[in-house]
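HOLO CASE FILE
Compound: uridine-5'-diphosphate
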Amino acid sequence: MPVSLAVVAGARPNFMKVAPLLNALSASDVLEPFLIHTGQHFDHNMSGQFFRDLGLPDPDFHLGAGGGTHAQQTAEIIRRIEPVFEERRPRGVIVVGDVNSTVAAALVAAKMGIAVIHAEAGLRSFDRTMPEEINRMVTDSISDVLLVTEESGRENLLREGHAPGRIHMVGNLMIDSLRCHLPKARASSALADLGVAAEKFGLITLHRPANVDDERQLAEIVGALRIISQTVPLLWPVHPRTRARLANIAVPDTIRILDPLGYVEFLALQAASFVVLTDSGGVQEETTVLGVPCLTLRENTERPATIACGTNRLAGTGKASILQAWRDMLAEPKRGGMPPLWDGEARFRCRAVLEKYFSIC
Ligand code: UDP
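Model generated. Tokens follow.
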């Protein structure tokens, strides 16, 4: 009998990780995946268009658990996912990344005696003020199979006492999606449609609560971006979380505000950017693979491989430190290289780990 596996996705950064995984698992003779969308992100431009861009099938279950505070959202996902697990009784639940859907689904599964598989396990910023860090730590602590993207993940898990046999270095599912869709992105009319096909430009994404929830902090960052945009015009697809806070902050004409972009369109822009300024986890990884300079507007990163091997630099969140990182980048561009196993084949390694796990457990 095939092994039923629930694959859980809920927010924008989940979709590009579950798409290749679902694809590979569906081709297995022994595994039978089905997709649950928690509804954590529900707008067309944060969810619907990713299904289209990434060729994801319609979810088998849509929980519609969007909105609310972290506690309300986590609680709502917990409440709504339990009956799905009761009905389908999967042998395993696969969760990805570090969002509320990740920790909520893992908690319910673990208490029902269902194996929890965490893709992107072990990443640590060591900053517990980040809600994502709490989600990572809790999810890893109750996971049975820990799929790791970079060496720091393995080291962190070992240090926390996880058994080596549970930890599997598989590479980076997000990069499977990047490598699959990059040719289409490069061939698309995205740059021409935005009128930047012939110019040098930079790209901004910001959504971490510490950067965007406090208007003074956001204004501090915009102060640095304003100066950078005098040298290179910047495009800023604004995350819904950030949009409301921007209302009272003067943004110059050299920074173009856009709605959040679809995956392929955003990939086309990233690949052609002179610089990317971001606080996104996924974008730090994607710029590393694209070889595009990345300034991370944070004090820390849970993805140190993007700094050690890649094009990423920590720029901090103050105006002076961001401008210093920008000047350093101009003076000494990083050539960058590729972290091991970010080769576009992670989904096959994940599948092999799961086929073995379920054949012997
Ligand atoms: N992304 C996108 N459109 C945008 C901004 C980001 O498609 O306007 C993609 C980006 O390429 C990456 C993912 O969204 O694949 C990152 O998601 P996000 O920054 O929301 O979350 P994080 O990675 O920080 O958890």
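CASE NOTES: Residues 12-13, 16, 205, 207, 237, 260-261, 263, 266-267, 280-283, 286 surround uridine-5'-diphosphate (CB under 6 Å). Residues 70-88 form the longest helix (19 residues).
CLOSED: yes
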